[in-house]
């Protein structure tokens, strides 16, 4: 599994001081792009009547996603433990095909490139790409309710299950 | 067979006619080599790729980036049969260069990001959708002759 070096973490944190303030706009735009560019992702939003760019549901969810990303940057030293609840939600309740997180990551990075063309350098892009790969942790493959590694994390945090 | 709307054809033609190949080509290839370092395995004879600065200032990499981007011109001119257009190139990448075809997708994604940075807000969702469809067809054609 990929790991973030101290240099990667610094790069992500530093870039986020520039980009983080626009996270709501980034989120809205990235989710709109995901749905427009990769229409198969609409299947996960069948419960919304409106998945157009002006849909308030799409806007709200885009904001939710990027706020979660922003929180993740804040806990970048413990992503595994910090993303536990989101991980279970996406894997066992929402059952999202992991390939879609890569598509979303790509759309977020297109938006970052548009908004911050000079700051979103190849080096920052690489650090962010590795950071997104860790989001693939959002979909553990175990058929057990909780994968062994998650159980270890839970035990470490004294959670009951 | 891939079906293109008039809008998609127009978008693709417009993107490529406004590209500065000497700028975008090197930027896209450099970004691919930096973001996905395993792709450097195909450039053993290209000199110093030791770090991001070395990659960005390497003239052989820059020249190859321009060459690759011009290679896409053939697809732009033959959008109705990209598969046949790239049959020979596909064989080359498989039999001689031994490139894992997944890397074509990585380079295509880097190209999308470099073009997005250059076009700014003009790179709308509609334009991105047409572009991603185009590069997906190119990537598929380049992987077609692998066996």
Automatic annotation (TrEMBL), chain A:
The keyword Heme applies. GO terms for molecular function: haptoglobin binding; heme binding; metal ion binding; organic acid binding; oxygen binding; oxygen carrier activity; peroxidase activity. Residues 3-144 form the Globin domain. GO terms for biological process: hydrogen peroxide catabolic process. InterPro entries: Globin, Globin-like_sf, Globin/Proto, Hemoglobin_a-typ, Hemoglobin_oxygen_transport. Keywords: Heme, Iron, Metal-binding, Oxygen transport, Transport. One of its GO terms (cellular component) is blood microparticle. Pfam families: Globin. CDD domains: Hb-alpha-like. It comes from the Eukaryota. The keyword rRNA-binding does not apply. Belongs to the globin family. PANTHER family: HEMOGLOBIN FAMILY MEMBER, HEMOGLOBIN SUBUNIT ZETA. This is Globin domain-containing protein.
Automatic annotation (TrEMBL), chain B:
Coiled coil: none annotated. SUPFAM superfamilies: Globin-like. Transmembrane segments: none annotated. One of its GO terms (molecular function) is organic acid binding. Keywords: Heme, Iron, Metal-binding, Oxygen transport, Transport. Residues 3-147 form the Globin domain. InterPro entries: Globin, Globin-like_sf, Globin/Proto, Hemoglobin_b, Hemoglobin_oxygen_transport. It holds the Pfam family Globin. GO terms for biological process: hydrogen peroxide catabolic process. It comes from the Eukaryota. The keyword Transport applies. One of its GO terms (cellular component) is blood microparticle. Belongs to the globin family. This is Globin domain-containing protein.
């Amino acid at each position: 599994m990929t790991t973030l070096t101290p240099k990667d973490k610094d790069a992500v944190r530093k870039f986020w001081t520039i980009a983080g303030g626009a996270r709501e706009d980034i989120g809205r735009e990235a989710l709109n792009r995901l749905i427009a560019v990769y229409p198969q992702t609409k299947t996960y939003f069948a419960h919304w009547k409106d998945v157009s760019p002006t849909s308030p549901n799409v806007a709200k969810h885009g904001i939710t996603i990027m706020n979660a990303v922003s929180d993740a940057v804040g806990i970048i030293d413990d992503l595994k433990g910090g993303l536990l609840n989101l991980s279970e939600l996406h894997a066992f309740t929402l059952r999202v095909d992991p390939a879609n997180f890569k598509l979303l990551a790509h759309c977020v990075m297109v938006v970052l490139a548009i908004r911050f063309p000079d700051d979103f350098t190849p080096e920052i892009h690489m650090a962010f790409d590795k950071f997104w790969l860790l989001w693939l942790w959002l979909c553990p493959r175990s058929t057990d309710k909780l994968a062994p590694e998650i159980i270890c994390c839970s035990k470490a945090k004294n959670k009951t299950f | 067979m891939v079906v293109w709307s008039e809008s998609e054809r127009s978008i693709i033609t417009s993107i490529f006619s406004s590209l500065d190949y000497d700028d975008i080509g090197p930027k896209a290839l450099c970004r691919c080599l930096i973001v996905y370092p395993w792709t450097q395995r195909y450039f053993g004879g290209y000199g110093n790729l030791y770090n991001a600065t070395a990659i960005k200032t390497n003239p052989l990499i820059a020249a190859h980036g321009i060459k690759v981007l011009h290679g896409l011109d053939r697809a732009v001119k033959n959008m109705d049969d990209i598969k046949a257009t790239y049959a020979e190139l596909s064989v080359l990448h498989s039999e001689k260069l031994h490139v894992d075809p997944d890397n074509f997708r990585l380079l295509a994604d880097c190209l999308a990001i470099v073009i997005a940075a250059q076009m700014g807000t003009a790179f709308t969702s509609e334009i991105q959708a047409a572009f991603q469809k185009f590069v997906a067809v190119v990537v598929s054609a380049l992987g077609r002759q692998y066996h």
